[in-house]
């Protein structure tokens, strides 16, 4: 029996929500900063910036304005280590359930470029994300609501008929500002720190979104 939709669209953050890429991202920062600046970082240094635009992350970590060379090094490290990319458990089944219920799906991410598509392909999830809004598509990325509103415009779905699933404060803030319901992925990078953003729903695994979205 086909399940009924409570919402017409689901917007997903990718890293920390769909893809379990915490160590993959951290090791890229660690390698890049050690190589170019002889700077050591630990996981606790990196977690607070995850979910922010890529360039802003490096500016925060280094206090430098010009960080393009660091971003390129980071990018190359990730390409060489993309074999470590994987989806969270039950992600494929969850996305299939949404698709079967004819729920529209889009990604709203701070990740950019071909590497994002590459990672989704490695995880065998690219077919679900035909619509991806990145910082390249907007003037103001998350936590500004522009990227969420852009995705809704493309999907032709009203804000009150959509939910945004994310693992960072920037995700929840962007979703709330755009007028969509928000689902905090407590299994992601930021965990219980998301409670401070007062999301509409909490889930401890990706499949937890199904009873929120379908009935």
TrEMBL record:
GO MF assignments: phosphoglycolate phosphatase activity
Native source species: Candidatus Daviesbacteria bacterium RIFCSPHIGHO2_01_FULL_41_23
One Gene Ontology biological process: DNA repair
GO CC annotation: cytosol
Pfam families: HAD_2
InterPro entries xref list: HAD-like_hydrolase_sf, HAD-like_sf, HAD-SF_hydro_IA, HAD_2, HAD_sf, PGP-like_dom2
Protein name: HAD family hydrolase
Matches recorded under SUPFAM superfamilies: HAD-like (SSF56784)
């Amino acid at each position: 029996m086909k399940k009924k939709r409570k919402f017409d669209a689901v917007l997903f953050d990718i890293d920390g929500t769909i893809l379990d890429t915490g160590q993959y991202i951290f090791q890229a920062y660690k390698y890049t900063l050690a190589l170019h600046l002889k700077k050591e970082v630990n996981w606790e240094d990196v977690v607070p910036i995850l979910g922010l635009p890529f360039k802003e992350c490096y500016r925060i970590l280094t206090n430098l304005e010009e960080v393009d060379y660091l971003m390129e090094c980071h990018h190359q490290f990730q390409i060489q280590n993309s074999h470590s990319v994987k989806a969270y458990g039950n992600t494929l089944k969850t996305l299939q359930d949404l698709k079967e219920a004819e729920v529209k799906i889009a990604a709203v991410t701070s990740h950019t470029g071909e590497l994002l598509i590459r990672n989704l392909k490695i995880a065998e999830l690219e077919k679900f994300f035909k619509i991806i809004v990145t910082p390249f598509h907007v003037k103001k990325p998350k936590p500004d609501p522009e990227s969420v509103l852009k995705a809704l415009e493309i999907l032709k779905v009203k804000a009150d008929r959509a939910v945004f699933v994310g693992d960072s404060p920037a995700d929840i803030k962007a979703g709330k500002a755009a007028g969509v319901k928000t689902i905090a992925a407590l299994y992601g990078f930021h965990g219980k720190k998301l409670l401070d953003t007062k999301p509409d729903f909490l889930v401890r695994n990706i499949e937890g979104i199904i009873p929120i979205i379908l009935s």
